[in-house]
Amino acid sequence: MNDFLTTLNYNSWILPVLLLLPMAGAAAVWLHGRLSPSATPEQAAGTTRQLRRIVFGIFVVEAVLSLGLWWSVDTTSTAWQAYYNRSWIPMWGMHVTLGIDGISLMLILLTTLIMPLAVLGGWTSVREKLHAYFALLMVLTTGMLGVFMSLDLMLFFVMWELMLVPMYLIIGIWGGQRRLYASLKFFIYTMLGSMPMLVAILYIGVRTGDPFGRPSFSYDWILAHATFNGPTTLWLFAAFFVAFAVKVPIWPFHTWLPDAHVEAPTAGSVVLASIMLKVGTFGFLRFAVPLFPGVASYPPVRFAILTLAVIGIVYGALVAMVQPDFKKLVAYSSVSHLGFVMLGIFAMTVQSVQGALFVNLAHGVSTGALFLLVGMMYERRHSRLLDDYGGIAKVMPVFATILTIVSFSSIGVPGTNGFVGEFLVLVGSFRTQPIFALIASTAVIFAAAYLLWALQRIIYNPLTKPENKILPDLNWREIGLLLPLLFAIVWLGVYPAPVLDRTREAAARFVHRVETSSLNLGLGPNVEIR
Amino acid sequence: MTFDLSIPSQLMQALTPDLVLMGGAMVLMLVAAWRPDSDRHQRLVGYGSLGVLLATLVLVLWFAGRGLSSGPGVIAVDGFRFAADALFILAALGAIALGIEYNGREGIWSAESHVLVLFATSGMMIMAAARDLMIVFLGIEMMSIAVYVLAGMNRRSPRSAEAALKYFLLGAFSTGFLLYGIALVYGATGSTNLTTISDHIVQYQLGHQSMLLMGVGLLLVGFGFKVAAVPFHMWAPDVYEGAPTPITAYMAAAVKAAAFATFLRVWRESFDVLDYAWLVPLWWIAAATMVYGNVVALAQRNVKRMLAYSSIVHSGYLLVAIAAGTNSGSAAFLFYLLAYTLATFGAFAVVCAMSRTGDRDLEITDYEGLWRVRPGLAIGMAVCMLALLGFPVFGGAGFWAKVYVLAAAEATPFRHLVPLTVLLVLASVVSAGYYLQVVRVMFMKPRPDGAPEPAPMGALTRLVLAVSVVLILLVGLVPSRVVSWARDNQPVPPKALKSLSITKAP
pLDDT of B162-179, one tens digit each? Predict the structure, then answer.
């Protein structure tokens, strides 16, 4: 496979193509909207059918193209893979620099594979202004992929913000009852976090620039040549921390999440949970910690972040337990799972970091699947309240089976993907942070409690409500779109080695960089250039 | 080529674009008075004005491309002047294009309104060229008097009259400050020439002389009034709301840009050496402008008033670029003005298109569900709002403008500017509250039952909106050329290096 890809020169063009394809797709969708007839209802229906196929096709092409990365990327190499570099704004030292390593590889594949499923999942639920909806979804895809690929701080920031407006509009236009409130909250929280990061990025760029006053935003160059000292480092780290903490979300920055997840349409929730939450933890792994390793290894800071992470784990699980709304329950369970990722990152052992990367992936798959299932429930019954259901297993046996498997994976039952990641995080962090690991491990029990209890109320209790007796089971489209996710759940749970092999080197380098650095809070220049 | 400004014929040559514009304006004034007011006549004069402006623009660009310079004298011949001129002419083109259709609809048939825009613009061009405080004053008065009249152009509307009177009274008041400041500076340094002032401050060590500092303080207040910086902003919201919409756009973009351009030149060329004295007051004025403008803008329900407060806020951002006091600060300033002008005109084009006779339908709630009936208008407005917010990609040029200002402020040796940049970005998060309010009303609310269909858009209004939006997005994707344009056109004081060597000599 690798030889075949080499003959195509795959690594030299794949990243820009993956970025530009959805953008071109958005333009195509817009053109389609301008050119297609929609005067009569039949014509409009035909246009809609055609549009859905085009969009799904584009996302499938994107996914297939990206699959080659699985073979072509050499994750043991210290050099960036599929590297692409081109000048963008030369006088400001900004470049379009793209590259991936073991940390971003899995997240890119997760993104490209989840997107077609998300489109398929929202196949019938979104009915108005479809062209705009799909165009925004495509722009959003470019933004997410760009965040995972950027190796230039300014490009990263632009991509980071590129994600914001489409999601804001998707929640606000196609969302549920309280969509106006939820979308504004989402926007303001994210922007409040990202604006200080912009100041920090510019500060770094300006202060590490060349003697001719041209700033430098190259990630590699800053990593290799710049050292940050004194209280300035703490400020810079804080700026990055807030931006990423909002996205993760770390307790207490999480309050936008339940609102946004619950109000978003199905595809929006899936994208939010599976991919957009990962950009926060990815930001820590790629930027905040490697740029300021001294701060990350500084005991008070590490202690504070670990405390917040563990509070998030336990708090998310406890709050999930009392939710009457299934979508909200899943949203709060995300807070808990992402706490595990933060714990893994800041426990700073190779195992725990690998575990964190794995939880990222596993959570993307299983929570994505959960939101898709919630969407299917909602389309049939127009309710997300747990108490409106009961005994569904009798009328929807396929649905009940799949929901059970996915819930098990979210709980972390051995043999599913959820187990591997959380186990690695806990084992890894027991070595350096036993107390935190101990508290975090209780959340596994809580997770079992809230999800099993929810399962009981949805699919097992007696079938008493007459509305539920006529619910149709899943159709082939729905089963087809869930199958890849079920496959991933089992495969990652039973045989995680290929994924772990691909993240090991990156995790080891990450830990090494932090452990060999220390924080200099004394006097001296704020920024030293070697 | 270098002009020797002491020779009258060469001085004339150096002022060619200004003279062409003024000459054209006078001819058109006669044409305007030739026939009784009618919609047709008003349109005719409007198109004539557009022609004169385009001719001047071509001349300005031609002059800018020739790399001209000048010896010492009362006016400057440099890239900054021509870059600023181009911005003013751009804004004037937009104002007249919007004005032709707006006046037709509102029944403002006095053809002089377009000619007055030309006079105001030539005043601005004088301001951008001025290298002498007397010429600065001349230019400001030329501009202001024309704009006072323009604000009251809609004679049937009491609000318009109120705006004109308010603007006139406070404008006269601020001119007093300015003139007094000029007098004191002259008293202290013995000159009104910008370069000579700077030289004399250094040469005679006037840095701590109280008369000079008082003069500089009064000039700061005077300019503060003209650019509507807090606490000298009180006139702006009422005037912006009352004036005819195209004139409001013109005031928000061009009048402000002209005042700022002069402000920047005076500060860079004369008072650069006094930065220890003005930096702290300027810091506080900028901070107060950003915070106050944003917080009050949040409470606005009228689009024009909201945009007025937003223009106050942007004065605050521009003051940060001036406070940087460096070359990149000046370049950032030019870039910002361009982005701001485009976004302002785009937004006001939508306001013109949406309002109906008698300036009704200007509440933000009147935009509810606009996306569903007029998607083009809604998307254009959204782009302009995001550009004013300084959001990347969707707000295009606005983002790079903000980045440029932030980077310039962070690169200065003054450490105090870093907190100011943090304040700037936090203020812009607050501004999301009202810019997004417009976006959200347009896109996320349904069109209320019985809401009137917006009138079809005139061709000129459509053109202004399309040009603004396309340029915003284009500059957002590939800003390099505009960055070099801004960098190459900073005001460079002649003999700046020489005055430094004087300091070291004794």
Answer: 899 999 999 998 999 999
